[in-house]
């Protein structure tokens, strides 16, 4: 099985501190791990469309800004039988070992609206300060979803450098 994902790092500044949205995976038969919003893209769905859809389904939030969206180009109208989009994401990942092969991209974004109490196979979406995220990762990286461990570490490294 080969999966392609579009994932969100949703940021806001609250009381002078940067916070992001995390949630708990609530899928039957899977461990309840902390994760970032996002998921599998549908066949021929654009990365941006999938990101917006997944964030809404899982958190109830509406994406209003996506970092890198201004870099997006597509070939719509050139050849109706083959269309492609190209965009600069925040980061990309590829599984290199595990029960399934997966590739995906992370986008930093801003949202509006109110968080749901639970969403599509998720529960407890919440805002947490980046310092708390760093501490959670330090204390027990295995409490995060297998996919998002590297994405969270990548984001934390970026935040240290900027």
TrEMBL record:
Belongs to the Nudix hydrolase family. It comes from Paenibacillus plantarum. It holds the Pfam family NUDIX. The keyword Hydrolase applies. Residues 1-150 form the Nudix hydrolase domain. Keywords: Hydrolase. It comes from the Bacteria. This is NUDIX domain-containing protein. The lineage of its organism: Bacteria, Bacillati, Bacillota, Bacilli, Bacillales. The keyword Hydrolase applies.
